[in-house]
Amino acid sequence: MGAQIRVYRQKIASTSSMKKIFKAMELIATSRIGKARSRARAALPYAEAITRAVSAVASQNDIDHVLTTKVENPTRAAVLVLTSDRGLAGAYSTNVLKQGDALTKRLREDGKEVRPYLYGRKAQAFYDFREREYDQVWTGNTDAPQVERAQEIGRTLVDRFLQPTEEGGVDELYLVYTEFQSMVKQEPVARRLLPLAFVESDAEDEHEPNPLYDFEPNAEEVLDALLPRYIESKIFAAMLEASASELAARQRAMKSAADNADDLIKKYTLLRNNARQAEITQELSELIAGADALAAS
Amino acid sequence: MAELDVQVVASDHAVWSGAAKSVRGRTVEGDMGILPGHTPVLSLLAEGELLIDPVEGGPIKAKVNGGFFSVDSDRVTIVADDAELIEG
After folding, report:
1. What angle do CA A274, A276, A279 make, to 5 degrees?
2. ipTM metric
3. Distance CA A143, CA A83 (A)
């Protein structure tokens, strides 16, 4: 009997210490979301300026540039999937990976070979476990991404894109990440980065025609320098959004874990009290039975 | 006199923005000065100093490292890989 109470006590103790951990992680995630979002906001002017310049150049010029021209029959596509390094964030990584799988399937149905590029330890574990191939993986700091990392990824992917298809280069480049829509809603999305698709509708000054730029030193060199930066800034923006989403997902997961721990503690407390009461009752009845037996003899 | 609407941004933060009388920067082909009414231009920046003469206050200097420089209808955008203001 006493053994049972001890078991319940142990369970209550371990659940409460886990609850403390969940609570702490929830608070940490909450405090870091704000920082992640303000970093995403801080990177916005750069991304906007570069997008404006790139779309201005591409819309007015008939320059044949490798990064803007579409290959006739794309045969190979690179897919960059952004996940997190750590778990305990609910279905965050799973959802992105699912989105990546859906995109991969679609591309394969179109007859394209898919070359996965991964970001985050969770993606690596997912691919390793299924013994799937991937071209390259970057890990570390997914919850606080650095510009240098985005530049490194951007360079790798642009280089791969610039390689001729026969030598293993890719014709298209896709990016799969989690879009931060609000604190409670994050949506995994798949976007095509290359070849560039210009949508000018998101420019607020739509009526203002794009100016005719002079280029220095010349259009080709400007585009050469501009486009990799554009890709890098897109990747960096996606990484920042993904990090905010990761933290929001973690916060929510930890909140529900702490709530569950609360429920469990309540349940076990009730069971412990029951067991204790049962023990007392039994002791009493044993005592009385013993006394009765003595009195009768 | 017309003024320039200047925006200096680095890859992860905005560095400076405001109205200015002139901007001078170093492009890959040499120094370039921008006054209001400049023709639209898109140019590559070299590593060097950027000098902004704002409408209010003293001149502002910034160190920029790579990037590009766009001017259109008196709107100047300096998009640098890395930029920071120099005090003084």
Report:
1. 110
2. 0.80
3. 10
- Determine, for residues B11 and A215 on separate chains, whether the beta-carbon distance falls below 8 Å: no
Domain spanning A61-246: which CATH class is it, in words? alpha beta
Return the number of CB contacts < 8 Å for A and B. Answer: 79
CA A47 to chain B, closest CA, distance in angstroms equals 8
Angle at A153 between CA A147 and CA A156, to 5 degrees: 140
Encode pLDDT of A146-204 as tens digits. Answer: 888 888 999 899 888 888 877 878 888 999 999 998 888 889 999 888 777 655 444 44
Q: Which domains does chain B have, with CATH numbers?
A: 4-86 (2.60.15.10)
Residues on chain B touching A43 (C-beta within 8 angstroms): 11-13
* Closest to A59 in 3D by CA, of A201, A173, A228, A233: A201
